[in-house]
Amino acid sequence: MGKLFNELKQDLLYQHGMNACLNCGVCTAVCPAAEFNDYSPREVMNIVQSENDELIEELLKSDKIWFCGQCFSCKTRCPRGNSTASVILALRRLSVRYGYFAESEKGRQQLFAKRVFGENMLKRGYTLLAENITPAHFPELGENWEYYYEHREEMRQWWDVPMNLENSPGSHRVIPKKDMEELRAIYQVTGAIDLMEAVEKGMEKKLGSKEEVEKYWQNWLETADSRNYEIKENK
């Protein structure tokens, strides 16, 4: 039993998710992500139960813990009431805290989640706003969405759900200042702010500088594909 496992088992999500895995494989059999990715909930549970820090560190540096879609099919079917999805969340937090997330392509996408979903929550109280769903990034949404994207302010005015009006219906309303202060306080107390900062620091350490992190971010804004950024071996 090592340092990483000791820290992992202190996480409430781990405690809720790991009861007594009997290695039956039902979780992998029902997992949608396992059908399409190099990912097995059963493998994750086996590695964690080994209490081997070297294996856990390897897992934290891999893409595997980022393939889970958090559907919790594993929990509903497990004969022992385990939840690999909960264990995965605990592993993700540990990976971010130690900066291991930046070692994998899927893990590095946490920068996008932090700068879009996380910062939207702190600024507006929502994870996703219409301006984030650009037609260039989501061409599959078609011409109707492109039209709405370009005319959303006037259209919402016409629908009588104007943008940026306090307590107006919809995700573009302005949430009262007092409520936003309470939300930010929750993020602070629960450690979410620390995790968001750890994402920035982990990426900076991996890429070598804040400037390089910004290049990585701009590349994603322009191409919508993090694989288009080449990680230099000497970083």
Automatic annotation (TrEMBL):
Signal peptide: none annotated. Residues 12-42 form the 4Fe-4S ferredoxin-type domain. The keyword Transmembrane does not apply. PROSITE patterns: 4FE4S_FER_1, 4FE4S_FER_2. It comes from the Bacteria. Pfam families: Fer4_8. Keywords: 4Fe-4S, Iron, Iron-sulfur, Metal-binding, Oxidoreductase. InterPro entries: 4Fe4S_Fe-S-bd, 4Fe4S_Fe_S_CS, HdrC_iron-sulfur_subunit, Helical_ferredxn. This is 4Fe-4S dicluster domain-containing protein. It comes from Floridaenema aerugineum BLCC-F46.
